[in-house]
Specification:
single chain; 239 residues; alpha/beta; Carbamate kinase; globular
Length: 239
């Protein structure tokens, strides 16, 4: 009988992965697929926390480039992550998966504040904890929030869920000869500027020896497969 390789994981879902074929917002079919996959992992007894991005609604850097104050733009982006967290919570709760949303920005009517010890208790009770609001600070991406929260909850690995089946040396949608990396070191990611996560998040993972798997979340069953340690996507670890 197969045994899961990991017992506690942090799943980072980019906002762009929720868009589907639309230009913005949440694709119901994509959300259904993701929540069904998470439900399957929970049934295995895996403790799972999720960090969601907000790029399907808002990108602070782009808004800042357009003339908006950067701090304000980043706070708007944090609010976008809360919308995605609530959408994921609703989808999971409809499947009878118990969840808690914890936000770095206080919103007591709709989410708990982020409290590490409370998050750990939820995980021990097999509740899915969805972290929203990024780190709660401007100038830090949700990638950095994912790395930070993964370390705070003692996750064994960080799963970066995207719409691409791994990391390539160039954009596979634009270049037919793009080469996929099966495995990379943190230094290779930084030296090659591969932008799997932003450099702050990558450095945080490297310094604390937290491995990363980048994989395609749109394919049903992939979350379960990576939990069992199957070679899917690209593994990033210390050299």
């Amino acid at each position: 009988m197969e045994v899961p390789k990991y017992k506690r994981i942090l799943l980072k879902i980019s906002g762009e992965a929720l868009v589907g074929k639309s230009d913005y917002g949440i694709d119901p079919d994509i959300m259904e697929n993701i929540s069904e996959q998470i439900k399957g992992v929970v049934k295995l007894g895996i403790e799972i926390a999720v960090v969601v991005g907000g790029g399907n609604f808002w990108r602070g850097v782009s808004a800042s480039a357009g003339g908006m104050d950067r701090t304000t733009a980043d706070y708007v982006g944090m609010l976008a992550t809360v919308m995605n967290a609530m959408g994921l919570q609703d989808s999971l709760e409809k499947k009878n998966v118990t969840t808690r949303v914890q936000s770095s920005i206080t919103m007591q009517e709709i989410a708990e504040p982020f409290i590490r010890r409370r998050a750990l208790r939820h995980l021990e009770k097999k509740r899915v904890v969805i972290f929203a609001g990024g780190t709660g600070n401007p100038y830090f991406s949700t990638d950095t929030a994912a790395a930070l929260r993964a370390l705070e909850i003692n996750a064994e690995i960080l799963f970066k869920a995207t719409k691409v089946d791994g990391v390539y040396d160039k954009d596979p949608k634009k270049h037919a000869d793009a080469r996929k990396y099966e495995e990379l070191t943190f230094m290779e990611v930084l030296d090659k500027d591969l932008k799997i996560l932003d450099s702050t998040a990558t450095s945080l993972c490297m310094e604390n020896n937290l491995p990363i798997v980048v994989f395609d979340i749109t394919r049903p069953g992939n979350i379960r497969d990576v939990v069992f340690g199957k070679k899917i996507g690209t593994l990033v670890k210390k050299g």
